[in-house]
Design a protein that fits this description.
The chain is α/β, with parallel strands linked by helices. Helices cover about 45% and strands about 15% of the residues. The chain has a single domain, classed as Aminopeptidase. Bound molecules: zinc ion (ZN).
């Protein structure tokens, strides 16, 4: 047997270089933030789930386990069970803020409250993975941007707005999965899911039409949670066709005439922050087209009518987690979740940096509306 060759310097260098991207990526895997600036007491997604965010769709029992483990480990996090779905799954609301404010959360006044709602349409599932990354980053991050958000905001994460529909999607895909993952052909069974689909709730009802009628347990629980906070910013995270790019507010015209005037101003503020983040990454996006702010039952419209800056985000779907697009590229769950994470981060950071003005504008708009009513 010939002696084993010693590794050449070039090979050693190549191996070391190959490690660099892994070391440079954040520990939740969805951004390029530094990997070492984390509280080691807070479990990473991989430590609890057994895989990296974006590898697969997180089923509800693992989502709740992760949320609970993070809440137990981080003094920044509080988790409340707002209610239960028709199938008995928990509707959660997770509040994350600085350690001193988290210790007396009931008295929190002054910071901006940001509500981030994920995957109300169960098969628009990349939002759930982005939300878990937001939770880890905010609970464990020690970097300047994370501190800036925690110091000026309470971030309210609704990690899965339609747990029954989302679970149906996660299980559909898991059942169709093979040893090599899911087939990316758009016509593959894995991309279709079981009839009649995972968009709606247990009753196949579209929960993103229910906010003003509130006829479903998920919505009633959510609205009670919303009214206990009165968020200044409300983001609703969705998916659209796989061949599209990314949409964020402002919406298309016509806009409902009851939308407060300051909301239009803030749409532009957040759009600029999101656009800057997407331009830096070289990702395509659009706005002012395709999605309206007219019907008051949407997950952003009803919040807007309370004075919040409500914004829909839409990401091109990765289908079953990887789908071939008409341009030949493959959209993956990780890429989809990365886009949602980037938009949520940019929006949350922009809100924190302008917290005092956003809260002042909100109070002024509410006072004006109260005066009109009396
Ligand atoms: Zn949707």
């Amino acid at each position: 047997m010939p002696p084993r060759p010693r590794p050449s310097a070039a090979r050693t260098l190549a191996a070391a270089t190959a490690l660099v991207p892994a070391l440079a990526a954040a520990q939740h895997g969805l951004s390029a933030a530094a990997a070492d600036a984390y509280d080691p007491a807070v479990p990473t997604p991989r430590a609890v789930l057994g895989y990296d965010l974006g590898d697969r769709f997180t089923p509800h029992h693992l989502l709740t386990r992760y949320v609970e483990r993070v809440a137990a480990a981080s003094p920044r996090v509080r988790v409340d069970t707002l209610g239960h779905t028709a199938e008995g799954r928990e509707v959660l609301l997770v509040a994350v803020t600085s350690e001193p404010r988290a210790a007396r959360l009931a008295e929190a006044r002054g910071p901006v409250f940001d509500r981030l709602g994920h995957s109300v349409h169960g098969n628009e599932a990349s939002g759930v993975e982005a939300g878990l990354a937001m939770l880890y980053q905010l609970a464990a991050g020690r970097d300047a941007e994370t501190r800036a958000i925690l110091d000026s905001a309470v971030v309210l994460l609704d990690p899965s707005q339609n747990p029954d529909g989302h679970e149906r999607h996660a299980q559909d895909v898991a059942r169709a999965r093979g040893a090599f993952g899911v087939p990316s052909a758009p016509a593959a069974l894995a991309q279709q899911g079981a009839w009649p689909g995972a968009r709606g709730s247990h009753y196949y009802f579209d929960l993103n039409r229910d906010w003003f009628i509130q006829s479903h347990p998920e919505t009633r629980a959510r609205v009670a949670g919303f009214l206990s906070w009165m968020p200044h910013v409300a983001v609703d995270v969705h998916e659209m066709g796989s061949n599209s790019s990314y949409f964020f507010a402002p919406p298309m015209e016509p806009v409902n005439r009851n939308v407060p005037a300051d909301v239009r101003k803030w749409w532009d503020v957040f759009a600029a922050a999101n656009a800057a983040a997407f331009d830096r990454a070289g990702w395509a996006y659009f706005r002012r087209e395709g999605y309206d702010e007219f019907y008051p039952g949407y997950g952003v419209s009803w919040p807007i009518l309370t004075g919040a800056t409500g914004m829909t985000f839409e990401q091109a779907s990765s289908g079953a987690g990887a789908i071939r697009r008409t341009d030949g590229a493959t959209m993956t769950l990780r890429e989809a979740a990365r886009h949602h994470y980037a938009a949520e981060w940019a929006t949350t950071l922009a809100a924190a940096r302008r917290a005092a003005v956003r809260v002042r504008d909100y109070a002024a708009a509410r006072a004006k509306s109260e005066a009109k009513r009396s």
